[in-house]
Amino acid sequence: MIELPDPPSDPAPEELSTAVAPRLRELRRHSALTLETAARRVGLSPAHLSRLETGQRQPSLPMLLALARTYGTTVSDLLGETAPEHDPIVRAARAEPSEAGGWTYRTVGGAGRAMQALRVHVPERAQGDLVRVHPGEEWLYVLTGRLRLTLGEAVHVLEPGDAAHFDSLTPHRLAAARGGTELLFVHTLLQSGAAELCLGDRTPHRRGG
């Protein structure tokens, strides 16, 4: 298991949404996990996870994805954006943009499912050095721009219309070329003691529509 160091804290982080920190604590307790066990499953120190649960630290989108996998839920649920559970249709007007770690994303899948679907904008240089390793599968499809996808030692440049489907236990990195990349992103939601992710530390916040 790869234990990842805590990312440096921002000099003046914005206050985390009041709904997110208690939700993280609630989900951990509902999963019957101690602070130490939950922190180990997402590759954080217990102190760092504790600061997330009290709103003193700000999770990036990759961090939210890792927490969602560990607790068997979705980023939308963590942020209080859960759509009606039995509605199979996600209207464009309901997919409001949110930001985390420099990425802008919209939830384009339903709640309570075994996978989560996102439409993501990856700006140039945003999180391009973060290596992710976790159980499950990922599928992505490039809509616009060019995406540099590193899988293990192999580097692939994806153009619009290209897709990738891979085992996410393979260390992987995503980086956008100049101008940024727009992509569809689907990942499985798994509760696993081996769930790990290399994490950034930025503030998730809703953008104006």
Query: Low-confidence parts lasting 5 or more residues at pLDDT below 50?
Result: 1-16, 191-209
Overall mean pLDDT: 76
Give me the number of helical elements.
5
Overall geometric form: globular
Q: Nearest-angstrom radius of gyration?
A: 16 Å
Strand order of the largest sheet: 7-4-9-3-2-1-10
What's the total count of β strands?
Answer: 10
> What class would the helix/strand composition place it in?
alpha+beta
In N-to-C order, the SSE pattern is: HHHHHEEEEEEEEEE
- How far apart are the termini? 41 Å
Largest β sheet strand count, sense and barrel closure? 7 strands, antiparallel
Kindly estimate the percentage of residues that lie in beta strands according to DSSP: 25-35%
Instruction: Please give the share of residues in helix.
Output: 10-25%
Structural summary, described in words:
With 209 residues, this protein is of the alpha+beta class. The chain is built from five helices and ten strands, in the order H-H-H-H-H-E-E-E-E-E-E-E-E-E-E. The strands form two sheets. It has a seven-stranded antiparallel beta sheet, covered by helices on one side. It has a three-stranded antiparallel beta sheet with strand order 6-5-8, with no helix packed on it. The longest helix has 11 residues, at 20-30. It starts with 19 loop residues before the first helix and ends with a strand.
Summarize the helices and strands and which ones pair or pack.
Blueprint: H1 20-30, H2 35-41, H3 46-53, H4 61-71, H5 75-78, E1 98-100, E2 103-107, E3 115-122, E4 137-144, E5 147-151, E6 154-158, E7 163-167, E8 172-176, E9 181-188, E10 205-206
Antiparallel strand pairs: 1-2, 1-10, 2-3, 3-9, 4-7, 4-9, 5-6, 5-8
Helix pairs in contact: 2-3
